[in-house]
Structure formats: structure tokens, C-alpha cells
Amino acid sequence: MMHQSGGCCDGSSPMCYPLGEFIVGDRDVLLGILDLRLAVGEVPANLPSADLDAVPVWISGSQFQAWKHTQLVLDVVPGRGGGFSLEAPEGWRFLSRARAFTDEENAALELAPPVVGTDYADGVRPPVPDSGQVVAEAVDACPVPAPPAR
To answer: Average pLDDT, stretch 10-22?
Structure first.
């Protein structure tokens, strides 16, 4: 599982833990489920099996309030990972990128309340995505704005 850290020892990077070794709080918010079955651009037909191909991604409720207007994109880049995260000794690290949602996206999100830890424990899952969730390059999901013209 992954948890978008809110700071402290390892900054605010996404952290990866063995499933069950990080306690998800009742008010933590499920950002999504990484579907390990998918390749670039593929759209899932159903949600992945919780124990085989699913990596839930969580954020604390208070941190979610600060980030709820943005799309968080998880990326993997060369470097040393956070000390508590599984990738730490592998020469790679997880990185969060973000882009602000459009007014239309924010309006759509208002209609779909997030799944929180207590809901998830009761079996609630997010809907199956209707678009591709995996991109080849982070810029495909989170474009870097062009500098202003001089």
C-alpha cells in the first residue's frame, strides 16, 4: 500500500509499505487503487483483486483537505527513497506531482464523496475508472506549464 506523507522525517513524498504494516485511520482518504494489471493507456474492466494486483493509495484526512483540488500523479524517478519506504535501498524513489483540477473536475468531485478508512474497512470501493490511469511519462498526466513569454 502507499500513503502520501504529510511531512516529517521524509518530507511529503509518497511512501510504500507492505500491505497491513501501515495502519489506515478511520478518516484517512483513499486517493485511488493502483491497478498493477494495466499497461499504458489501458482502461480496466473491473477493480483489481485486493490481495494480488491492487495497491491502495491513502492520504490523511487533513492532508486531503489541503490537496483535494489537485490531481496527484505518482511517479518513480532515480534517487534514494524515504527511509521508511520500501523502495529506499533500490536506487529509485517515489515522487508526487500535481496539477490543479479544472472547475468542471472540481464540480464532478463534489458529487462523489471520497472513500475513507472506515468505509474501506466496511468493503466500500471506488468506482471502476472509465479512462486510462497509467501514462508513459508524468508530463502526460501532469503537464509542466510553459514559462511566460518575454
So the answer is: 78
Residues 6 or more apart whose CB falls under 8 angstroms from that of 62 comprise 6
CA-based nearest residue to 67, from 34, 99, 35, 103: 99
The pLDDT of 5-9, averaged and rounded, is: 64
pLDDT at 29: 95
pLDDT of residue 47: 87
- 39, 136 Cβ separation under 8 angstroms: no
Helix, strand or coil, per DSSP, at residue 66: helix
Kind of pairing between the strands at 54-59 and 2-4? parallel
Give the whole-angstrom CA distance, residue 141 versus residue 131: 12
Q: Give residue 26's region: left, alpha or beta (phi > 0; psi -120 to 50).
A: alpha
Phi, psi of 109 (to 5 degrees): -65, -30
pTM here is 0.82
For 53-104, write each residue's pLDDT tens digit: 888 999 999 889 988 999 888 888 887 766 677 666 777 888 888 889 999 9
The dihedral sign for the CA sequence 48, 51, 57, 62? positive
Residue 10: CB atoms within 10 A of its CB come to: 16
